[in-house]
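Sequence, please.
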């Protein structure tokens, strides 16, 4: 199978994720387009794990565009909530998606919790074609805890409530700082290393 390519479709309509991936993948010099720009709707995400949902999204984008596809499934996992909101992070407060309503529900759920430890989890899947039997899969995690009042205006999702060990929230970090340490940044660097290895093996 030819694994070289110069164009990649991002299987996401989340503008925040798209911006982050454009910055993170810049070293590969690959033309990145979003599935929405190609008229591809979002795939269903019926599974209970990040990896299964990322895989179905990547295959969906590849199938409808004929291009290699990169899909991300990520979310916030909180110990006191038995891993919730997990794969439902983007829709924690139901449809339509709303960061504000998701955050409000999260803080309500945690109002009596003493353990507020949390982690962001990201799973990336890159398929070279819809029927790729050996897609690249990479994982990343980012540890923190949830605070009761938001701080910062950067980032998206739960970032204003996600407190890091250095005392800042994820929303108080510049994009470059966040990309260097975040779950998505870690997973992307793992994926790029895997991709470079596969490209070198295939000459």
């Amino acid at each position: 199978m030819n694994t070289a390519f110069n164009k990649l479709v991002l299987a996401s309509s989340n503008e925040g994720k798209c911006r982050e991936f454009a910055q993170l993948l810049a070293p590969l010099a690959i033309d990145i387009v979003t599935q929405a720009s190609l008229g591809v709707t979002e795939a269903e995400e019926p599974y209970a794990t990040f990896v299964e949902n990322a895989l179905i999204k990547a295959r969906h984008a590849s199938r409808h565009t004929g291009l290699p596809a990169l899909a991300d499934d990520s979310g916030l996992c909180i110990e006191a909530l038995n891993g919730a909101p997990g794969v439902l992070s983007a829709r924690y407060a139901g449809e339509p998606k709303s960061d504000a309503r998701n955050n409000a529900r999260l803080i309500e759920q945690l109002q009596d919790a003493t353990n507020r430890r949390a982690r962001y989890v990201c799973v990336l899947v890159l398929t070279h074609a819809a029927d790729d039997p050996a897609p690249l899969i990479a994982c990343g995690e980012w540890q923190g805890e949830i605070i009761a009042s938001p701080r910062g205006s950067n980032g998206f999702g739960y970032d204003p409530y996600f407190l890091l060990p250095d005392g800042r929230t994820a929303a108080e970090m510049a994009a470059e700082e966040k990309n260097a340490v975040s779950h998505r940044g870690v997973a992307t660097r793992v994926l790029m290393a895997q991709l470079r290895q596969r490209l070198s093996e295939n000459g």
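The chain is about 30% helix and 20% strand.
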